[in-house]
Amino acid sequence: MPESKAAKELDVSVTTLKFRCHELGIPKWPYKKMKCLATLEASVSGFAHPGSQHVIRHIREEIEAIKQNSTLEISDETNELRQQMYELKKKRKRNDTRAV
Predict the structure, then answer these.
(1) Where is the RWP-RK domain (predicted)?
(2) Is 85 contained in some domain?
(3) 45-99 per-position pLDDT tens digit
(4) pLDDT number for residue 65
(5) Is 65 within a domain?
(6) Coil, strand, or helix at residue 32?
(7) What is the pLDDT of residue 13?
């Protein structure tokens, strides 16, 4: 859940939420990482590639690891996959606009 929504649920300001998180050792709110990984998982699920299940399992493991320790960074392998998916989406969009 986004910081603003979490702050509202807890009935505190976003600044107070950030302050408390820092006190508890949470330097950054992990929502963007989690959303990024969920989007990546959905994108990979759309492919009927034999290795897709392995990749999806890896993404889910990474999501669980970040849930346990929000300070973890997204792995280089996953970042590379994100970049590849971005390039693929961009290429498809470009080809769709040329076809019109």
Answers:
(1) 1-57
(2) yes
(3) 887 677 788 888 999 999 999 888 888 889 999 999 999 988 988 888 888 776 5
(4) 92
(5) yes
(6) helix
(7) 94
pLDDT score recorded for residue 58: 92
* Alpha-carbon span 87 to 82, nearest angstrom: 9
Tokens standing for residue 88: 């693929």
Number of domains observed in the structure of the chain: 1
| C-alpha span between 93 and 100 (Å, rounded) | 11
End-to-end Cα spacing for the chain: 38
Domain-located, residue 41: yes
Residue 62 lies in a domain: yes
| The pLDDT of residue 48 | 67
pTM metric for this prediction: 0.71
Domain that includes residue 91, residue range: 30-99
- Give the DSSP H or E segment for 68: helix 52-68
